Amino acid sequence: MFYFKNSKLSLFGNSKNLEKDIDEFVSILSEVGLSFKLIVKDFLSNATGENFEQRIEKITAKESRADTVVKQIEYALYEETLIPDARSDVLRLLEHLDEVIGMYQGNCYRFSIQRPDFPQEFHADLLSLTDTAVDCVETLCLTVRSFFRDVRSVRDNAHKVTFYEKESDIKSSDLARRIFSSNLNLDQKMHLRYFVEKIDGICDRAEDIADELIIYAIKRSV
Amino acid sequence: MELTIILFLFGGLFLGWSLGANDAANVFGTAVGTRMINFKTAALVCSIFVVLGSVISGAGTTETIAKLGAINALPGAFACCLAAGSSVYLMTKAGLPVSTTQAIVGAIIGWNFFTSSKIDYSVLTTILATWVLCPILAGVIAIGIFTLVKKIVFNSKIHILRLDAYTRLALLLAGAFGSYSLGANNIANVMGVFVNISPFTDIEITSFFTFTSTEQLFLLGGLAIAVGVFTYSKKVMFTVGNDLLKISPLSAFVIVLSHSIVLFLFASEGLSNFLTSMNLPSIPLVPVSSSQAIVGGVIGIGLLKGGKEVKWSIAGRIALGWVVLPILTMVIAVFYLYILKNMFDLKVVF
């Protein structure tokens, strides 16, 4: 078989493994989002028992697995000098996606530790905001997958991420406005607003990454 | 074999060495410089295929060089090679992308002048036209291949990592083809002037196969190129690779392939005979510049992307090289021939 720089890999074997690793990593991001949606739903319906904590533990395990996969990808890309022209972009992208997983995990722990007291009247809005945030990241996952396989559709998918981010901005502003115009104490209002902002922050980060992806895609298409 | 013969052949071997050191970088420079392919792999593949190309397909272009000037004395051939080597060195120092092809042609014309031999102007015109055609053809082929490759890559929706693996394989295959074409096309520059005065004799290996004296010369020249590849091309490859960093590995593959096709077209006797048998105009078998074919490919892709990144000054400098280098080499060759004849009392023509 052909021998390449610093490696004695068969020509395509290692590429296939790395493809699987990248796919797995993106899948973890997607799954963590879906779990986060269930956790918020459980929390608001007061289902905060053992099952609730188990879901959070699962997210932690997935976050840990994501870190391991990223490290594997990083070592392989550098050691085997793969995709020299796009390597730094890919590694930066994976690091930023890992941050989104971290944001999901952080929000879960905030719900578990701080137990914010959301009155019933805000539940639907908070769930809707959470749905939008998760949809936003789901679309980001599609954009990431298209970056690796179909660079021409990156812009279309990234545009949808921007759409969800704007939706999230509207929903979070409306919810914050409603929270502050309610009769709750100021400390509670600020506590609830903190959670709203943290969930909205996921969309902001997703949009930043989508913007980066557009640039990476332009670089790849040249 | 006499020591003087070895000494005179050394001129050609030196040219071969410098060809290997510099032109191997055209074939594998980007791949090695961007670390897509290991230097040892590149050098091994390059050496094997350069030797194969030289021995199997080197005759066509050599015949054209021989038509231009039938050098019939070893000191004359030595002076031509030394003049070519000297002028390439001077022009490279001046930063002009020149080639041994243009140098050796200038040297042969110098020999013709010095010995009052007739110049075949139809051959000379063909050679000059081919030099201009070479980068243009490389550019056109690069545009065609790049458009096709881009379409295939986008439509196949292939994963970036698998594309990377395919590109490495493609670079290796294109490099092997490029090395073969380089040997076939450029061995005439290295050994062409020695063909009429080859010190070797034909060796009959079987009743069907004879290892001719010309093939032995080409093998020697090919080995000199290979030595150049192994001993000195690494540095040049990394320089080329870093200079061309803005070119993606896929573009590099297209450029190397178009370069290889052009060199092959101008070296393939089989293709030329086939076209003649089909009553089509045949392709002249002329040694062309590997460096200029590469630059032609780069400009072609640059034009396809809108032409903004094309450095037209480089194209101008290439055109300058077509005129300046042969004239300079001609003058140097006449000077060396004069010294050999008058100071060392050597016969430069019979």
Structural domains of chain B: how many: 1
Q: How many distinct beta strands of chain A?
A: 0
| Number of DSSP helical runs of chain A | 6
Distance from N terminus to C terminus of chain A (CA atoms, Å) equals 31 Å
Major sheet description of chain B: 2 strands, antiparallel
Spans of at least 5 consecutive residues with low confidence of chain A: 1-9
Count of discrete alpha- or pi-helical segments spanning 4 or more residues of chain B:
12
Q: How many structurally independent domains of chain A?
A: 1
Q: Which stretches of chain B of 5+ consecutive residues score pLDDT under 50?
A: none
CATH level 1 class label of chain A = Mainly Alpha
- The helix/strand class of chain A is mainly alpha
The major sheet of chain A is characterized as: none
CATH domain fold name of chain A: Methane Monooxygenase Hydroxylase, Chain G, domain 1
Any overview of this molecule?
The complex is a heterodimer of chains A (222) and B (350). Chain A is mainly α and 222 residues long. Chain A has one domain: Phosphate transport system protein phou homolog 2, domain 2 (Methane Monooxygenase Hydroxylase, Chain G, domain 1), CATH 1.20.58. Helices cover 81% and strands 0% of the residues of chain A. Chain A is built from 6 helices and no strands. In chain A, helix 1 (13-44) packs antiparallel against helix 4 and helix 4 (123-149) packs antiparallel against helix 5 (154-180). The radius of gyration of chain A is 20 Å and the shape is globular. Chain B is mainly α. Chain B has one domain (3-342). Chain B has a two-stranded antiparallel ribbon with strand order 1-2. In chain B, 56% of the residues are buried.
